Amino acid sequence: MSKKTKIILNRTEEKIGVKGSVIHVSSGYAFNYLLPQKIAELATPGKLKHLKMFTNIQNQQLKTSKIKAKIIVLNLEIITKISLKKKIGDNKKIFGRVNTREISNKILKYIGYQLDKKQIVISEIKKSGIYEAKINILSDIKNYLKIQIIPEINNNNF
């Protein structure tokens, strides 16, 4: 019977496990392959304590970010739609394009929280009308918002 060695994985390996997991492997496998390739490190009591502390901090940060995300979702649900004025040409086509920064600035005005433009996903908007934007707050928390494009009235023609 071979002796098992306790190790901590430094990176995710398909057949072994995910990064940060503590596993038992045979001593030969650990000392001849995993440790020299820096795939894993020996699980000493100090490193295990450090890993536990690090995972506790990560879990705490995840909980606080989920709470903030839920507050943002509740605030976004208050908004029924966001209206943007754009110059319109023939066939209700808009000049320029609607970008995520404009939507983010409108959300800031309504709820007082600045979303990153990468969190907002919109399809290409070419005409006036009502469209839907997807707001990715966290990887598992999403919200949808209606965007209304309103023609900007020019009084220069009169």
TrEMBL record:
Organism, as annotated: Betaphycus gelatinus
Keyword Plastid set for record: yes
TM region positions: none
Biological processes, Gene Ontology terms: translation
NCBIfam families: L9
Keyword annotations: Plastid, Ribonucleoprotein, Ribosomal protein
Cellular-component GO terms for this entry: ribosome
InterPro entries named in the record: Ribosomal_bL9, Ribosomal_bL9_bac/chp, Ribosomal_bL9_C, Ribosomal_bL9_N
Name of protein: 50S ribosomal protein L9, chloroplastic
Domain Ribosomal protein L9, first and last residues per copy: 17-44
GO molecular function: structural constituent of ribosome
Coiled coil residues, start to end: none
